[in-house]
Amino acid sequence: MDTKNAPRPIIIKKKKVISGGGHHGGAWKVAYADFVTAMMAFFMLMWLLNATTEQQRKGLADYFTPTIPVARISGGGTGSFGGDSPFSEENLAQSGTGASSEFPTEGRQAMGISGTDYSAEALEQAALEGIEDSLLGGGDSRISDEALDQVQTRLTDTGLVIEVFARADAPLFSEDGTALQPWLLEFTGIMAELFGTVSNDLAVGAYVRAEPVVVALETRWDRSMAQAQLMRRTLEAEGVNTRRFQRVVGYADRSPVTQDPMAVRNDRVEIILLRSGA
Question: CATH second-level architecture of 143-278?
Answer without folding.
Answer: 2-Layer Sandwich (3.30)
